[in-house]
Amino acid sequence: MSVVGWPSKLRWDQFKPLDAPPAGASIGGWTHADPDASIHPLLAPPQVFSIVPDAKHKTQRRFVNFNITVKLDSLDTWVVKDKQSDKLLKHEQGHWDIAGLVGREWHRRLEWLRAETDDGLMKLARDTKQYFQSKLDSLTGQYDDETKNGSEDHKQLEWNSTIGSFIGKHFLCVALWFADEPAFS
User: How much helix, strand and coil, in percent to the nearest 5, is found in the chain?
Assistant: First the structure.
């Protein structure tokens, strides 16, 4: 398994019910935020892994036996009680699925990393964490901007279809959204 915690279907009982949005919720941050709900998926780096010599290039080191974890930040995942709807949950599911797909792509990148030293490999891993967190931030923002936080039905359906096709193909080619970036799949 490469990604722990995803894929999975979101349920409203995973969201903290609130009477009103928290102060500043409409400001956003890296997470999705709108007046009705907010989901904050986290990408957690491998906690257990092995570093071994590469079979082809004996002087190179690589990661093996590791997972990326996708989880919800329970303190920052909430819904206004009277705003729960299937439509809103489907929109939040899109955020969750984007995080899972980016997590899977991060796992692939870590599998491909090579360095001459363990320290060098660990530095590359930290750099990829920042890179993929930035990717997640950008995609999440783009998703909300284009769908108007799920209120623009046509755009939401387009995103649902795109996300679904990536899940169905078992890969995420982030370059479709960022033409200046190389594809990783």
Answer: 50, 15, 35
Residues 6 or more apart whose Cβ sits within 8 Å of residue 83: 36, 37
pTM equals: 0.84
Say what percent of the chain tops pLDDT 70: 84
Mention every residue, 6+ apart, whose C-beta is less than 8 A from residue 5: 69, 70, 71, 100
Residue 39 contacts residue 32 (beta carbons within 8 Å): yes
CA distances for 61 relative to 15, 55, 120, angstroms? 41, 9, 9
**Structure confidence at residue 1 (pLDDT):** 59
Residues 6+ apart with CB under 8 A from 179: none
Q: Where are the domains of the chain?
A: 3-171
CB 141 within 8 A of CB 178: no
What is the Cα–Cα distance from 81 to 95, expressed in whole angstroms? 20
- Relative to beta strand 37-38, strand 78-80 is antiparallel
Q: Is the pLDDT of residue 133 over 70?
A: yes
Query: What one-character DSSP code corresponds to residue 9?
Result: -
Digit-coded pLDDT (tens) for 142-183: 999 999 999 999 999 999 999 999 898 755 443 444 444 444
As a whole number of Å, the CA-based R_g of the chain is 18
